[in-house]
Amino acid sequence: MGFLTHAISVLIAVIAIAFTVFVNYPPPPESPILYQWRTSGKYYEFNGYDIFYKDEFGKGNELINATILCLHGFPTSSFDFYKVWPHLKKTFKRVIAVDFLGLGFSSKPRYHHYSVFEQSDLVENFLKHLGIREVHVWSHDYGDTVAQELIARQNEGKEKITLKSVSMMNGGIFPGIYRPFLVQKLLRFPIIGTILGKLANYYMFSTNIISVFGEETCPTVAELYDMWAIIRYNDGYRISGEILYYMDERHMNEDRWVGALKETKIKIHFIYGALDPINPESFVDFYKKIIPNPIIDVLRNCGHYPHLELPDIVFNLYQKFIRNHILS
């Protein structure tokens, strides 16, 4: 009995040491391109928190006086737009991207009640800070839901900014057909989610993130390490469950946010990667049925991250939308 007790004590000690080493394992170093992205960005204060953003002036052409705002998804950051950023700078006069609170290089407070409504306030406050009143929005995933709330506010005449157009990519804008992964659901549970958050690591992350990409458009190892480095920044991986509250909000506010897309006078565009497991292909028919005069482009060989997987093609689709439906 004494041997068994001793063995169990040793095992517990080994597990405790392994756990301590595991959760304190340093994040990967930034690649040169990620380092350049971060160091060329700026910060502004929102409700006492530091919010990272990129703000650059482009050459402009047909949209010489227009500004575009890029809204990223979960669990990544504005860096997702880096491959289309040069294209945007050639098209728009001003190109802006912001990291939501709790994500990217922005502050990541723990025990914070993260909400789509707060992130929408952040966007409005951010644009006011820059002195911008009108924007074209290009969003992805979580950013799509924030865009829906901004559209709802504009429909109600309560907006602080004017959306000139909105183009979305692979967001769960219809909660009824959205299929989150099991790990996302588990992260929402108080105790289990806390443990899973602390146990999160590059290998778990890379396995899950690769599964939402197309088979032929998977990210490189270097790109995966950059994504993970951003998530590890300020221990962001530990608050994933708190940010995922947006999945609950989508259901609670389904009438408001889906209704916003149905009622708006703003031109809405959707670029859909058909190999996305969390937004199954039934999404296309549902979108066409729900949205009046739908404008949607479907990429058959693309997954959840169109702007990372097929950046040139995706930008051309976006530019076609602007030319055909905004400038015409």
Q: Can you walk me through this structure?
A:
By secondary structure, the protein is α/β, with parallel strands linked by helices. The chain has a single domain, classed as Rossmann fold. It has 15 helices and eight strands. It has helices at about 1-25, 30-40, 85-90, 115-130, 140-155, 180-185, 190-200, 200-210, 220-230, 240-245, 245-250, 255-265, 280-290, 305-310, 310-325, and strands at about 40-45, 50-55, 65-70, 90-100, 135-140, 160-170, 265-275, 295-300. It has an eight-stranded mixed β-sheet, sandwiched between helices. Helix 4 (about 115-130) packs across helix 5 (about 140-155) and helix 5 packs across helix 12 (about 255-265). The model has no long low-confidence stretch (mean pLDDT about 90).
